[in-house]
Amino acid sequence: MRLLHTSDWHLGRAFHRVGMLGAQAEFIGHLVTTVRERDVDAVVVSGDVYDRAVPPLAAVELFDDALHRLADLGVPTVMISGNHDSARRLGVGAGLIGRAGIHLRTDAAACGTPVVLRDAHGDVAFYGLPYLEPALVKDVLGVERAGHEAVLAAAMDRVRADLATRAEGTRSVVLAHAFVTGGEASDSERDISVGGVSAVPAGVFDGVDYVALGHLHGCQTLTERVRYSGSPLAYSFSEAGHRKSMWLVDLAADGAVTAERVDCPVPRPLARIRGELEDLLADPGLTRHEDAWVEATLTDAVRPADPMARLAERFPHTLSLVFAPERAPDGPDASYAGRLAGRGEQQIAEDFVAHVRGAGPDEHERAVLRDAFDAVRADETAREAVR
């Protein structure tokens, strides 16, 4: 069976205030063409279909168009909700849409109920594990203490239990939206950490033939059977070095996996340039970036006049301007952002306690801080889910 693995469409998202809907529509067209021309048997979309819980109408219309085009091809599609999606909204009408071959999996309680497709070699069971917010799904999955590894492990126990009841030789595919150990993050993914721990080991997914991951925006191979497709478009300058693609996966009769990357259209390349303003304006080596979306970091000791306007004369698509004067990092002129760089919210809070009273928090106080941050994240997620 040939699968096309994609994720993290983020329909409705902008790139530094530049609308991306046209580029997203071009990607959808590319996906449909790939399905048709490469004889794809099933499409898997591993979460973050939309960029936010209540997407703009234009994004919903593009999603609707994508579903119709995939259904018209007669190729089954399995998709899950991600941490940016509202699972309840995305799942509305799932039963009816499923009759057209578009299978939406947004309910944590249904992790062990697969979509079963068949090819010449037998059945392939597709298990959709939507994004599992630990505080919201731990009771559904029978987990005592909330944590990403615990809830994913419980969901996979259900998958393996169902798979054990199926005919010998049944192959298996799991869709999951999570941060798996070994994956490389970028700046455009929303933090999903709980208690300071968001990553789960790849071993959680042992026992299935292929794991189609979503959440991280770079295309990555964690093992031959566990892969991220990455987002089809770049959504931050930290992705300037990414090659945006989808995975074309062949699942053999014995469950063996071979995979090929299929490149996605690039609306405009990204470039990150750094140096003093006059040098950037004069450097002939930067000519290749004149048509790119540019993030410029200026290292001038004194902020130059009208830097954005002057940069735009040579680089008309400059979208981000960063000032990083080359001073001693611990000097009196170090910026607040610079002093916080590399510190998570837990560490910032602990440093604040130490600054105020002269001594950092003890273990009990650290636990209180962790619980407070977890409660805030869970509350934010719950509010988004019911919008």
From TrEMBL:
Residues 1-218 form the Calcineurin-like phosphoesterase domain. GO terms for biological process: DNA recombination; DNA replication. It comes from the Bacteria. InterPro entries: Calcineurin-like_PHP, DNA_Repair-Maintenance_Comp, Metallo-depent_PP-like, Mre11_N, SbcD, SbcD_C. It holds the Pfam family Metallophos. Residues 267-355 form the Nuclease SbcCD subunit D C-terminal domain. Transmembrane segments: none annotated. Signal peptide: none annotated. Keywords: DNA recombination, DNA replication, Endonuclease, Exonuclease, Hydrolase, Nuclease. One of its GO terms (molecular function) is 3'-5' exonuclease activity. SbcCD cleaves DNA hairpin structures. These structures can inhibit DNA replication and are intermediates in certain DNA recombination reactions. The complex acts as a 3'->5' double strand exonuclease that can open hairpins. It also has a 5' single-strand endonuclease activity. Heterodimer of SbcC and SbcD. Belongs to the SbcD family. This is Nuclease SbcCD subunit D. It comes from Streptomyces ruber. The gene is sbcD.
